Amino acid sequence: xxxxxxxxxxxxxxxxxxxxxxxxxxxxxxxxxxxxxxxxxxxxxxxxxxxxxxxxxxxxxxxxxxxxxxxxxxxxxxxxxxxxxxxxxxxxxxxxxxxxxxxxxxxxxxxxxxxxxxxxxxxxxxxxxxxxxxxxxxxxxxxxxxxxxxxxxxxxxxxxxxxxxxxxxxxxxxxxxxxxxxxxxxxxxxxxxxxxxxxxxxxxxxxxxxxxxxxxxxxxxxxxxxxxxxxxxxxxxxxxxxxxxxxxxxxxxxxxxxxxxxxxxxxxxxxxxxxxxxxxxxxxxxxxxxxxxxxxxxxxxxxxxxxxxxxxxxxxxxxxxxxxxxxxxxxxxxxxxxxxxxxxxxxxxxxxxxxxxxxxxxxxxxxxxxxxxxxxxxxxxxxxxxxxxxxxxxxxxxxxxxxxxxxxxxxxxxxxxxxxxxxxxxxxxxxxxxxxxxxxxxxxxxxxxxxxxxxxxxxxxxxxxxxxxxxxxxxxxxxxxxxxxxxxxxxxxxxxxxxx
Length: 500
Hints:
By secondary structure, the chain is an alpha/beta fold. The protein has a domain of 241 residues: Amidase signature (AS) enzymes. The protein has 15 helices and eleven strands. The longest helix is centred in the last third of the chain and has 22 residues. The two termini are 19 Å apart. Keywords: ATP-binding, Ligase, Nucleotide-binding, Protein biosynthesis, Transferase. It comes from Comamonas aquatica DA1877. One of its GO terms (biological process) is translation. Its EC number is 6.3.5.7.
């Protein structure tokens, strides 16, 4: 086939073209590198190294020629700039780590890459994100994207005046604009599912601990989870199958749960599937255009044989204050390592060691990161720990219990991934309004449950709407199956922005 059409192929279709040698990994890499350069205006990439990418592509071609390549060998991928990656800088979109080069790959990068035992995928570059993954709009990056001299917000390919969501906004924009067939993201409180919703793509956060956090720069250790983002559930199933698996020697939070092929049950019938519909996901605050799209998607599921079951998740609203106590508390601890001593940014002018710490962190961290560090330090301080942090942990347990009660009556839970479609860049300058936009994604994160967002239609202005599906622990196959059957019956995931 013509290499000019490669970006229209799904991961599975491109993998088949590579396996059958209708196109080479080098040709595929060159095509997507050219697209990334042509669409620099979106600000999706923060690092590209053509020589490194083409060297990996040649290695992938050699694997394919020898018959040793896996089913994703040669398929290009780009990584959120929160995963340490050999050959590329890793900055977490922060001035604190500007120019940092890691001597090793994150486990997720290694498992997907052209390495011994890896899937053979070719790294195109690193993708923009909110600084240290703290944000819901991808407006908090302190690193200049490729083609720019200064930091820029990532732009939504469906409307460049709108945000792509965050923190994995660069990842979502890259897939939506067909700059990469597949990407990695991370989800702490919704940072895969919300940008997937805003950009009209599919993204899944697996059960906490299924994908290794080794080499993933920590924000909130009890919440952070890696996951794939692609155009379809099938694409995500292929990627997640390679990403998951125990990493007990490197990651203390990794689960001793076997790897799984998430593609095996994609085509199973969903006749009789019980879909829980929480009243709390459809109340005040849900935009009318989003609700209309979600309601239509649920009706489509009924046509496919699923049954809608009313349920309640009574502590949904409490997930926002709970998350914004626990996540900053963990962030304040995790980010204490960035002090100007061992690696990263160091202030040029200081009077003593203590002053160096203060100047370095004042210069190196952006406003949102500083805000969360201060909140975290406050809730962990003597006299406030019991009132805030400990109480939040108790409510977190209750939120998890609410889900287990609901799963007695249903198999999966459905609702909007976000209360609105993508807002205008700069449209939520108030931090609290940004935080409230996570209300539907936070509960599953606090409970450690798998969650998926898939394209479910369009709202006002032709902006994408995402349907969120939440499953019980280790129910990724069921979520991907439900999403895949919906995508076989609809074409929302095939739609692309004008000019793409």
